[in-house]
Amino acid sequence: MEDKLFLAKAKKIIGHFRLSVESHLATSPDKQRLLQLADGVLLTLSNQTRVNNKILIEMEKFYQSTSMIIGLSLSDSKCIYSSWREYDAFHFEYVKPNLKVYGNTFLI
User: Fold this and answer.
1) Quick check: 56 and 96 in contact, CB under 8 A?
2) Which top-level group of life is the source organism from (predicted)?
């Protein structure tokens, strides 16, 4: 997938996830954290013109942190969960195969 298409698709999917969190989740620390994570990765994506390992690492950090919150607290919300599963599929199809991590790795 070419860089512009990858970045546009990632922004669209993460933006959709952010909107579903914003509209379907009651005010809570989890909501604030999810919005903060989504805003951070969207800002990083909007500042990039090419896909490199830096952007893939940021997307991996977003994935790890968000999946922890989703797994622990949001099993009730079908809309948020379905938009998360859309990003999850995108992440495993495009981000994971291209991510290059050097050295020791651990859960963020």
Assistant:
1) no
2) Bacteria
